[in-house]
Design goal:
Adenylosuccinate Synthetase, Chain A, domain 3, Adenylosuccinate Synthetase, subunit A, domain 2, Adenylosuccinate Synthetase, Chain A, domain 1, 13 helices, binds inosinic acid, 422 residues, 4-stranded mixed sheet, 20 strands, 10-stranded mixed sheet, 21% strand, 33% helix, alpha/beta
Protein backbone atom coordinates (compact mmCIF):
# COMPACT_ATOMS: atom_id res chain seq x y z
CA UNK A 1 0.00 0.00 0.00
CA UNK A 2 1.15 3.49 -0.82
CA UNK A 3 1.76 6.69 1.14
CA UNK A 4 -1.43 8.67 0.56
CA UNK A 5 -2.37 12.28 1.13
CA UNK A 6 -6.09 12.83 1.58
CA UNK A 7 -7.45 16.34 1.03
CA UNK A 8 -10.82 18.06 1.05
CA UNK A 9 -11.63 19.27 -2.47
CA UNK A 10 -14.23 21.86 -1.41
CA UNK A 11 -14.72 24.13 1.66
CA UNK A 12 -14.26 21.48 4.35
CA UNK A 13 -16.84 19.04 5.76
CA UNK A 14 -16.58 16.84 2.65
CA UNK A 15 -16.97 13.67 4.72
CA UNK A 16 -13.21 13.14 4.97
CA UNK A 17 -13.51 11.40 8.36
CA UNK A 18 -15.43 8.54 6.83
CA UNK A 19 -13.10 8.12 3.81
CA UNK A 20 -10.08 8.33 6.11
CA UNK A 21 -11.66 5.59 8.16
CA UNK A 22 -12.08 3.43 5.04
CA UNK A 23 -8.45 4.04 3.90
CA UNK A 24 -7.11 3.51 7.41
CA UNK A 25 -7.80 -0.22 7.09
CA UNK A 26 -4.89 -0.40 4.63
CA UNK A 27 -2.56 2.03 6.47
CA UNK A 28 -0.13 1.55 9.35
CA UNK A 29 0.23 5.19 10.35
CA UNK A 30 -2.23 8.09 10.16
CA UNK A 31 -0.99 11.68 10.42
CA UNK A 32 -2.74 15.02 10.97
CA UNK A 33 -0.63 17.80 9.49
CA UNK A 34 -2.48 21.12 9.81
CA UNK A 35 -5.35 22.93 11.45
CA UNK A 36 -6.47 22.36 15.01
CA UNK A 37 -9.68 21.60 16.78
CA UNK A 38 -11.53 23.77 14.26
CA UNK A 39 -11.84 20.45 12.41
CA UNK A 40 -14.46 17.85 13.23
CA UNK A 41 -14.25 14.40 11.71
CA UNK A 42 -17.32 12.28 12.27
CA UNK A 43 -17.06 8.49 12.09
CA UNK A 44 -19.85 6.00 12.73
CA UNK A 45 -18.85 2.49 13.77
CA UNK A 46 -22.04 0.49 13.97
CA UNK A 47 -24.41 2.89 15.68
CA UNK A 48 -21.68 4.55 17.76
CA UNK A 49 -20.83 8.07 16.63
CA UNK A 50 -17.30 9.40 17.22
CA UNK A 51 -16.47 13.06 16.56
CA UNK A 52 -12.72 13.71 16.52
CA UNK A 53 -11.21 17.18 16.42
CA UNK A 54 -7.46 16.71 16.88
CA UNK A 55 -6.80 12.99 17.21
CA UNK A 56 -6.58 11.21 13.83
CA UNK A 57 -9.57 8.94 13.36
CA UNK A 58 -7.15 6.03 12.86
CA UNK A 59 -7.20 5.79 16.65
CA UNK A 60 -10.52 3.95 16.35
CA UNK A 61 -8.63 1.03 14.76
CA UNK A 62 -6.60 -1.11 17.15
CA UNK A 63 -2.83 -1.14 16.50
CA UNK A 64 -2.67 1.86 14.15
CA UNK A 65 -0.13 4.56 14.98
CA UNK A 66 -1.58 8.09 14.95
CA UNK A 67 0.47 11.26 14.78
CA UNK A 68 -0.39 14.89 15.42
CA UNK A 69 2.22 16.54 13.21
CA UNK A 70 4.25 19.73 13.60
CA UNK A 71 1.87 21.69 11.36
CA UNK A 72 -1.06 21.28 13.74
CA UNK A 73 -1.96 23.84 16.40
CA UNK A 74 -2.84 21.85 19.51
CA UNK A 75 -5.32 23.02 22.11
CA UNK A 76 -3.99 21.05 25.14
CA UNK A 77 -7.23 21.26 27.12
CA UNK A 78 -9.28 20.19 24.10
CA UNK A 79 -6.87 17.35 23.36
CA UNK A 80 -6.95 16.01 26.93
CA UNK A 81 -10.75 16.13 26.85
CA UNK A 82 -10.79 14.28 23.54
CA UNK A 83 -8.41 11.62 24.83
CA UNK A 84 -10.46 11.18 28.00
CA UNK A 85 -13.59 10.85 25.86
CA UNK A 86 -11.91 8.13 23.83
CA UNK A 87 -10.74 6.29 26.96
CA UNK A 88 -14.30 6.37 28.34
CA UNK A 89 -15.42 4.65 25.11
CA UNK A 90 -12.68 2.02 25.57
CA UNK A 91 -10.47 3.41 22.79
CA UNK A 92 -6.82 3.17 23.87
CA UNK A 93 -4.26 5.90 23.06
CA UNK A 94 -1.08 4.91 24.94
CA UNK A 95 1.58 3.67 22.54
CA UNK A 96 -0.65 4.57 19.62
CA UNK A 97 -0.89 8.38 19.67
CA UNK A 98 2.15 10.65 19.30
CA UNK A 99 2.31 14.45 19.32
CA UNK A 100 5.04 16.38 17.53
CA UNK A 101 7.46 18.26 19.77
CA UNK A 102 7.40 21.19 17.38
CA UNK A 103 3.64 21.63 17.01
CA UNK A 104 2.41 24.88 18.54
CA UNK A 105 -0.07 25.08 21.39
CA UNK A 106 -3.31 27.07 21.35
CA UNK A 107 -3.65 29.12 24.52
CA UNK A 108 -6.60 31.01 26.06
CA UNK A 109 -5.49 34.37 24.63
CA UNK A 110 -5.68 32.96 21.11
CA UNK A 111 -9.37 32.23 21.59
CA UNK A 112 -10.04 35.67 23.09
CA UNK A 113 -8.16 37.36 20.24
CA UNK A 114 -10.05 35.27 17.67
CA UNK A 115 -13.38 36.51 19.10
CA UNK A 116 -12.11 40.09 19.48
CA UNK A 117 -10.81 40.29 15.90
CA UNK A 118 -14.04 38.86 14.53
CA UNK A 119 -16.17 41.32 16.51
CA UNK A 120 -14.09 44.22 15.18
CA UNK A 121 -14.61 43.09 11.58
CA UNK A 122 -18.39 43.59 11.81
CA UNK A 123 -20.08 42.54 8.58
CA UNK A 124 -16.71 41.51 7.08
CA UNK A 125 -16.23 38.80 9.70
CA UNK A 126 -14.79 35.48 8.52
CA UNK A 127 -17.13 33.41 10.66
CA UNK A 128 -14.26 31.53 12.32
CA UNK A 129 -14.84 28.62 14.68
CA UNK A 130 -13.48 30.88 17.50
CA UNK A 131 -11.03 28.17 18.50
CA UNK A 132 -8.06 30.54 18.35
CA UNK A 133 -6.63 28.99 15.19
CA UNK A 134 -5.75 32.22 13.35
CA UNK A 135 -4.07 33.90 16.34
CA UNK A 136 -2.11 30.70 17.15
CA UNK A 137 -0.74 30.51 13.60
CA UNK A 138 -0.07 34.29 13.66
CA UNK A 139 2.14 33.88 16.73
CA UNK A 140 3.87 30.92 15.12
CA UNK A 141 4.66 33.05 12.03
CA UNK A 142 5.72 35.90 14.32
CA UNK A 143 8.12 33.44 16.02
CA UNK A 144 6.67 34.12 19.45
CA UNK A 145 4.46 31.03 19.84
CA UNK A 146 4.79 28.24 22.39
CA UNK A 147 5.80 24.84 21.04
CA UNK A 148 4.79 21.52 22.58
CA UNK A 149 8.39 20.81 23.63
CA UNK A 150 8.47 24.04 25.66
CA UNK A 151 4.96 23.49 26.95
CA UNK A 152 5.86 20.16 28.61
CA UNK A 153 8.96 21.58 30.37
CA UNK A 154 7.52 23.42 33.42
CA UNK A 155 10.28 26.01 33.80
CA UNK A 156 10.36 26.87 30.09
CA UNK A 157 6.57 27.02 29.99
CA UNK A 158 6.45 29.28 33.08
CA UNK A 159 8.77 31.87 31.53
CA UNK A 160 7.01 31.90 28.16
CA UNK A 161 3.59 32.04 29.79
CA UNK A 162 4.56 35.00 32.02
CA UNK A 163 5.73 37.01 29.01
CA UNK A 164 2.70 36.15 26.92
CA UNK A 165 0.21 37.00 29.66
CA UNK A 166 1.90 40.33 30.24
CA UNK A 167 1.86 41.11 26.52
CA UNK A 168 -1.77 40.17 25.94
CA UNK A 169 -3.21 41.57 29.17
CA UNK A 170 -2.35 45.03 27.83
CA UNK A 171 -4.54 44.38 24.75
CA UNK A 172 -7.28 42.82 26.87
CA UNK A 173 -7.38 45.79 29.28
CA UNK A 174 -7.53 48.24 26.38
CA UNK A 175 -10.51 46.36 24.92
CA UNK A 176 -12.47 45.86 28.12
CA UNK A 177 -11.75 42.09 28.25
CA UNK A 178 -11.07 40.61 31.72
CA UNK A 179 -7.31 40.18 32.09
CA UNK A 180 -5.69 36.73 32.54
CA UNK A 181 -4.34 35.40 35.80
CA UNK A 182 -0.98 33.62 35.55
CA UNK A 183 -1.54 31.12 38.38
CA UNK A 184 -4.97 30.11 37.15
CA UNK A 185 -3.75 29.43 33.62
CA UNK A 186 -0.50 27.83 34.73
CA UNK A 187 -2.28 25.42 37.07
CA UNK A 188 -4.81 24.38 34.47
CA UNK A 189 -2.39 24.06 31.55
CA UNK A 190 0.46 22.42 33.46
CA UNK A 191 -1.94 19.63 34.45
CA UNK A 192 -2.72 19.12 30.75
CA UNK A 193 1.03 19.22 29.98
CA UNK A 194 1.68 16.42 32.46
CA UNK A 195 -1.01 14.27 30.85
CA UNK A 196 0.24 14.89 27.32
CA UNK A 197 3.98 14.57 28.07
CA UNK A 198 4.15 10.77 27.62
CA UNK A 199 2.72 11.16 24.10
CA UNK A 200 5.21 13.78 22.89
CA UNK A 201 7.78 12.47 20.41
CA UNK A 202 10.16 13.32 17.58
CA UNK A 203 7.53 12.50 14.99
CA UNK A 204 9.71 13.39 11.99
CA UNK A 205 12.17 10.63 12.84
CA UNK A 206 9.32 8.30 13.73
CA UNK A 207 7.85 8.77 10.22
CA UNK A 208 11.26 8.37 8.59
CA UNK A 209 11.87 5.08 10.41
CA UNK A 210 8.40 3.89 9.42
CA UNK A 211 9.09 4.75 5.79
CA UNK A 212 12.37 2.76 5.95
CA UNK A 213 10.33 -0.23 7.13
CA UNK A 214 7.92 0.13 4.18
CA UNK A 215 4.99 1.12 6.35
CA UNK A 216 1.96 2.72 4.69
CA UNK A 217 1.30 6.26 5.80
CA UNK A 218 -1.97 8.15 5.42
CA UNK A 219 -1.90 11.94 5.76
CA UNK A 220 -5.36 13.14 6.70
CA UNK A 221 -6.19 16.67 5.66
CA UNK A 222 -8.48 18.91 7.66
CA UNK A 223 -10.73 21.65 6.25
CA UNK A 224 -10.73 21.92 2.45
CA UNK A 225 -8.91 23.33 -0.58
CA UNK A 226 -10.82 26.62 -0.71
CA UNK A 227 -10.05 27.34 2.94
CA UNK A 228 -6.29 27.19 2.20
CA UNK A 229 -4.43 30.29 3.42
CA UNK A 230 -2.68 30.66 0.03
CA UNK A 231 -5.05 29.11 -2.49
CA UNK A 232 -8.45 29.57 -0.87
CA UNK A 233 -10.96 32.40 -1.07
CA UNK A 234 -8.73 34.76 0.94
CA UNK A 235 -9.47 36.36 3.39
CA UNK A 236 -12.37 33.94 4.01
CA UNK A 237 -10.03 31.04 4.74
CA UNK A 238 -8.43 29.25 7.65
CA UNK A 239 -4.81 29.97 8.62
CA UNK A 240 -3.04 26.84 7.37
CA UNK A 241 -2.24 25.11 4.08
CA UNK A 242 -5.09 22.69 3.59
CA UNK A 243 -3.85 21.66 0.13
CA UNK A 244 -1.65 18.60 -0.41
CA UNK A 245 1.66 20.45 0.03
CA UNK A 246 0.70 21.08 3.66
CA UNK A 247 0.95 17.35 4.33
CA UNK A 248 4.72 17.52 3.78
CA UNK A 249 5.52 20.76 5.59
CA UNK A 250 3.15 19.82 8.39
CA UNK A 251 4.84 16.48 9.05
CA UNK A 252 8.44 16.66 7.83
CA UNK A 253 7.74 13.86 5.34
CA UNK A 254 9.31 14.64 1.94
CA UNK A 255 7.13 15.16 -1.20
CA UNK A 256 8.94 12.57 -3.33
CA UNK A 257 7.78 9.83 -0.97
CA UNK A 258 4.09 10.56 -1.46
CA UNK A 259 2.55 8.06 -3.89
CA UNK A 260 -0.99 9.25 -4.29
CA UNK A 261 -3.33 12.14 -3.55
CA UNK A 262 -6.97 11.32 -2.87
CA UNK A 263 -9.51 14.15 -2.90
CA UNK A 264 -12.84 14.05 -1.11
CA UNK A 265 -15.90 15.99 -2.27
CA UNK A 266 -19.60 15.85 -1.60
CA UNK A 267 -22.10 15.14 -4.36
CA UNK A 268 -23.27 18.70 -3.67
CA UNK A 269 -21.42 21.64 -2.06
CA UNK A 270 -21.40 23.06 1.47
CA UNK A 271 -19.60 25.86 3.22
CA UNK A 272 -19.57 27.14 6.83
CA UNK A 273 -18.76 30.76 7.63
CA UNK A 274 -18.51 33.71 5.26
CA UNK A 275 -17.05 33.96 1.76
CA UNK A 276 -18.05 33.42 -1.85
CA UNK A 277 -19.79 30.23 -2.94
CA UNK A 278 -21.15 30.67 -6.48
CA UNK A 279 -23.39 27.59 -6.56
CA UNK A 280 -25.08 28.31 -3.19
CA UNK A 281 -28.78 27.52 -3.49
CA UNK A 282 -31.69 28.02 -1.11
CA UNK A 283 -33.73 25.07 -2.40
CA UNK A 284 -30.98 22.55 -1.73
CA UNK A 285 -30.08 24.18 1.64
CA UNK A 286 -33.69 23.98 2.85
CA UNK A 287 -34.03 20.44 1.58
CA UNK A 288 -30.87 19.15 3.31
CA UNK A 289 -31.50 21.03 6.57
CA UNK A 290 -35.05 19.66 6.52
CA UNK A 291 -33.55 16.17 6.47
CA UNK A 292 -31.50 17.11 9.56
CA UNK A 293 -28.31 17.13 7.48
CA UNK A 294 -25.54 19.68 7.13
CA UNK A 295 -25.05 21.08 10.60
CA UNK A 296 -21.38 21.67 11.60
CA UNK A 297 -19.65 18.91 13.61
CA UNK A 298 -17.59 21.49 15.55
CA UNK A 299 -19.93 24.47 15.92
CA UNK A 300 -23.38 23.02 15.15
CA UNK A 301 -23.93 25.90 12.70
CA UNK A 302 -26.16 25.13 9.68
CA UNK A 303 -23.92 24.82 6.63
CA UNK A 304 -24.59 26.80 3.47
CA UNK A 305 -25.47 24.35 0.69
CA UNK A 306 -25.44 24.38 -3.10
CA UNK A 307 -25.15 22.22 -6.20
CA UNK A 308 -21.86 20.45 -6.85
CA UNK A 309 -19.38 23.02 -8.10
CA UNK A 310 -17.21 21.26 -10.68
CA UNK A 311 -15.27 24.49 -11.28
CA UNK A 312 -14.10 24.24 -7.68
CA UNK A 313 -13.44 20.50 -7.90
CA UNK A 314 -11.49 20.96 -11.17
CA UNK A 315 -9.41 23.68 -9.49
CA UNK A 316 -8.86 21.45 -6.45
CA UNK A 317 -7.69 18.63 -8.74
CA UNK A 318 -5.14 21.03 -10.24
CA UNK A 319 -3.91 22.49 -6.92
CA UNK A 320 -3.57 19.20 -5.07
CA UNK A 321 -2.64 16.84 -7.88
CA UNK A 322 -5.70 14.74 -7.04
CA UNK A 323 -5.29 11.27 -8.60
CA UNK A 324 -8.62 9.93 -7.36
CA UNK A 325 -11.80 11.48 -6.02
CA UNK A 326 -13.98 9.98 -3.29
CA UNK A 327 -17.51 11.29 -3.56
CA UNK A 328 -19.66 11.39 -0.42
CA UNK A 329 -23.31 12.07 0.41
CA UNK A 330 -24.70 10.91 -2.92
CA UNK A 331 -27.87 9.95 -1.03
CA UNK A 332 -28.44 13.65 -0.22
CA UNK A 333 -29.55 14.13 -3.85
CA UNK A 334 -31.82 11.07 -3.99
CA UNK A 335 -35.15 12.93 -4.13
CA UNK A 336 -34.58 15.69 -6.70
CA UNK A 337 -36.43 15.68 -10.05
CA UNK A 338 -33.48 17.46 -11.64
CA UNK A 339 -29.91 17.75 -10.39
CA UNK A 340 -27.54 20.50 -11.44
CA UNK A 341 -23.79 20.56 -11.90
CA UNK A 342 -21.95 23.88 -11.99
CA UNK A 343 -19.54 23.55 -14.93
CA UNK A 344 -18.34 27.15 -15.35
CA UNK A 345 -18.64 30.60 -13.78
CA UNK A 346 -19.61 33.76 -15.63
CA UNK A 347 -18.63 37.30 -14.68
CA UNK A 348 -18.58 40.46 -16.83
CA UNK A 349 -19.14 38.38 -19.97
CA UNK A 350 -16.12 36.14 -19.25
CA UNK A 351 -16.46 32.40 -18.58
CA UNK A 352 -14.17 30.84 -15.96
CA UNK A 353 -13.24 27.14 -15.90
CA UNK A 354 -11.08 27.51 -12.75
CA UNK A 355 -11.88 29.47 -9.58
CA UNK A 356 -10.60 33.03 -10.10
CA UNK A 357 -8.26 34.12 -7.32
CA UNK A 358 -9.46 37.74 -7.43
CA UNK A 359 -12.17 37.65 -4.78
CA UNK A 360 -13.88 40.77 -6.18
CA UNK A 361 -14.46 38.74 -9.37
CA UNK A 362 -15.36 35.52 -7.56
CA UNK A 363 -17.97 37.31 -5.45
CA UNK A 364 -19.79 38.36 -8.62
CA UNK A 365 -19.48 35.05 -10.48
CA UNK A 366 -22.73 33.39 -11.55
CA UNK A 367 -22.85 29.61 -11.93
CA UNK A 368 -23.33 28.05 -15.37
CA UNK A 369 -25.27 24.82 -14.85
CA UNK A 370 -25.62 21.56 -16.69
CA UNK A 371 -29.05 20.15 -15.75
CA UNK A 372 -29.43 16.39 -15.48
CA UNK A 373 -32.40 14.17 -14.65
CA UNK A 374 -32.62 13.05 -11.00
CA UNK A 375 -32.83 9.37 -10.04
CA UNK A 376 -35.56 9.65 -7.37
CA UNK A 377 -34.54 6.34 -5.79
CA UNK A 378 -32.91 5.76 -2.38
CA UNK A 379 -29.23 4.86 -2.85
CA UNK A 380 -28.16 4.14 0.76
CA UNK A 381 -28.54 0.37 0.44
CA UNK A 382 -26.58 0.24 -2.83
CA UNK A 383 -23.09 -1.31 -2.71
CA UNK A 384 -21.90 -1.32 -6.32
CA UNK A 385 -21.61 0.97 -9.31
CA UNK A 386 -23.72 -1.34 -11.48
CA UNK A 387 -26.61 -1.28 -9.00
CA UNK A 388 -26.87 2.52 -9.01
CA UNK A 389 -29.88 3.96 -10.88
CA UNK A 390 -28.90 4.89 -14.43
CA UNK A 391 -29.50 8.62 -13.83
CA UNK A 392 -27.21 8.54 -10.79
CA UNK A 393 -24.46 6.91 -12.87
CA UNK A 394 -25.02 9.53 -15.54
CA UNK A 395 -24.71 12.32 -12.96
CA UNK A 396 -21.51 10.81 -11.55
CA UNK A 397 -19.98 10.33 -15.00
CA UNK A 398 -20.66 13.99 -15.80
CA UNK A 399 -19.19 15.05 -12.47
CA UNK A 400 -16.09 12.93 -13.08
CA UNK A 401 -15.58 14.32 -16.59
CA UNK A 402 -16.11 17.94 -15.53
CA UNK A 403 -13.77 17.59 -12.55
CA UNK A 404 -11.02 16.10 -14.73
CA UNK A 405 -10.22 13.25 -12.37
CA UNK A 406 -11.27 9.65 -11.61
CA UNK A 407 -13.96 8.67 -9.15
CA UNK A 408 -12.67 5.89 -6.90
CA UNK A 409 -15.04 5.67 -3.93
CA UNK A 410 -18.75 6.48 -3.60
CA UNK A 411 -20.33 6.97 -0.20
CA UNK A 412 -24.10 6.64 0.16
CA UNK A 413 -24.61 6.97 3.93
CA UNK A 414 -22.81 7.80 7.18
CA UNK A 415 -21.86 4.25 8.28
CA UNK A 416 -18.47 2.69 7.56
CA UNK A 417 -19.95 0.08 5.23
CA UNK A 418 -22.21 2.46 3.27
CA UNK A 419 -19.44 2.84 0.74
CA UNK A 420 -18.24 1.12 -2.44
CA UNK A 421 -15.34 1.37 -4.88
CA UNK A 422 -15.87 2.35 -8.48
P1 LIG B 1 -10.94 29.15 11.60
O1 LIG B 1 -10.25 27.99 10.99
O2 LIG B 1 -11.64 28.82 12.90
O3 LIG B 1 -10.06 30.36 11.74
O4 LIG B 1 -12.13 29.59 10.60
C1 LIG B 1 -11.86 30.14 9.32
C2 LIG B 1 -12.90 29.68 8.32
O5 LIG B 1 -12.71 28.29 8.05
C3 LIG B 1 -14.35 29.83 8.77
O6 LIG B 1 -15.15 30.11 7.64
C4 LIG B 1 -14.70 28.45 9.30
O7 LIG B 1 -16.08 28.18 9.23
C5 LIG B 1 -13.92 27.58 8.33
N1 LIG B 1 -13.53 26.28 8.89
C6 LIG B 1 -12.56 26.03 9.78
N2 LIG B 1 -12.48 24.71 10.04
C7 LIG B 1 -13.43 24.13 9.30
C8 LIG B 1 -13.81 22.76 9.11
O8 LIG B 1 -13.25 21.81 9.68
N3 LIG B 1 -14.83 22.55 8.24
C9 LIG B 1 -15.44 23.57 7.57
N4 LIG B 1 -15.11 24.84 7.71
C10 LIG B 1 -14.10 25.12 8.56
Amino acid sequence: MANIVLVGAQWGDEGKGKIIDVLTEKSDIIVRTQGGNNAGHTVFIGTTKYVLHLVPSGILHKSKICIIGNGVVVDPIGLVKEIEGLLSMNVQVAGQLFISQTAHVVMPWHKELDALKESKKGSNKIGTTKNGIGPAYSEKADRTGIRVIDFIHPERFKTLLKNKIEEHNETFAANGIPTMDFDEIYNLYSKAAEKLKPLVADTVTLLHEAWKQNKSILFEGAQGTFLDIDHGTYPFVTSSNTTSGGACTGSGFPPNRIDKVVGVAKAYSTRVGSGPMPSENEEISNHLHGLGREFGATTGRPRRCGWHDAVATRTAVMLNGIDELALTNLDGLDTFDTVKLCVAYECDGIQYRYVPSDITVLERCKPVYKELPGWKTPTTAIRSWDDLPENARNYLKNLEKESETHLSIISVGPARDETFSV
